[in-house]
From TrEMBL:
GO terms for molecular function: 2-succinyl-6-hydroxy-2,4-cyclohexadiene-1-carboxylate synthase activity; hydrolase activity. This is 2-succinyl-6-hydroxy-2, 4-cyclohexadiene-1-carboxylate synthase. InterPro entries: AB_hydrolase_1, AB_hydrolase_fold. The gene is menH. Gene3D superfamilies: alpha/beta hydrolase (3.40.50.1820). Residues 32-260 form the AB hydrolase-1 domain. It comes from the Bacteria. Coiled coil: none annotated. It is an enzyme of class 4 (lyase). Keywords: Hydrolase, Lyase.
Length: 271
């Protein structure tokens, strides 16, 4: 049965910031916690969340830097994200599984070094070095508040879309406006990702780790090669399974949310 959103939770994370989450299903029942990555927010994951029914609840985190959550704040780092997530996991007692996408996948795997978890799942997690070649241009765009340039840099020079694909995105005025809004933390997040030394192990305290890669990115840069770097670090620490989502790339939550939800449901029964 498709889950529906029941309420929104909010946590103070210190430094004048806060984090919110959309909760689907039974709001007080332990379930799946979802961590979106860069250029994404909780709203973008609503179709995946409603397709997942193997857990009694699905809590989709709206990381700081995204409305209605609070600002990144000074001193923002990858560690900031891990500590935010740790607080949420402490509050969501009995979390059965943690799932992260892209940058959120790395955050989830790092959180599983700090917190004991039954299962952690990551879709194409990224790790340093990733996208470092565009940091100067992202910084320049941020200083000018040129979010159009930021959205184009991320989509063309990191995601690898060609000019025609970017123009297709731009033709959807509301969609492009959303991408510009979501691009505002992009420089800070990418800088934080590349400032943190890669850990020797990931998911050290998880009983099981499931890593997902889209078939279109398997073994290819930038997402597939970063995925392979992460896989080597996870395999040292815990029981690990790798899964390939047929016909998909990095944006499966937007392009194939039902298929991704189906895969997540299957992983719940596999544990």
């Amino acid at each position: 049965m498709e889950q529906t959103i029941q309420n929104q939770k909010k946590w103070s994370v210190g430094g004048g910031s806060w984090v919110t989450a959309d909760v689907y299903g039974e709001p007080d029942a332990p379930g799946l916690v979802v961590v979106p990555g860069a250029m994404s927010d909780a709203h973008a994951w609503r179709h995946v969340a409603t397709a997942v029914d193997a857990w009694p609840s699905v809590t989709v985190v709206n990381r700081r830097g995204r409305t209605p959550s609070g600002p990144l704040t000074d001193g923002y780092s990858l560690r900031t994200e891990v500590e935010d997530l740790g607080l949420i996991l402490d509050e969501c007692a009995g979390t059965q599984a943690l799932f992260g996408w892209s940058y959120g996948g790395l955050i989830a795997l790092l959180a599983a070094n700090d917190s004991s978890l039954r299962q952690v799942i990551a879709y194409e997690p990224v790790i340093r070095p990733f996208g470092s070649h565009v940091l100067p241009d992202l910084k320049a765009a941020e200083e000018k508040a040129d979010w159009e340039a930021t959205a184009e840099i991320v989509n063309r020079r990191i995601a690898g879309l060609d000019a025609a694909q970017v123009e297709t995105l731009r033709a959807d005025r509301q969609g492009w406006a959303d991408l510009q809004r979501l691009s505002r933390p992009a420089h800070a997040e990418l800088a934080a990702l590349n400032a943190a030394p890669p850990p020797h192990e990931l998911a050290r305290r998880a009983d099981r780790a499931d890593l997902i890669v889209g078939q279109c990115n398997h073994g290819t840069a930038p997402y597939g090669t970063s995925f392979d770097d992460v896989r080597q670090r996870v395999a040292r620490a815990t029981r690990t399974e790798v899964h390939v989502l047929p016909g998909q790339g990095h944006m499966a939550h937007l392009q194939a949310p039902a298929e991704l939800g189906h895969l997540l449901n299957g992983l719940a029964t596999a544990r």
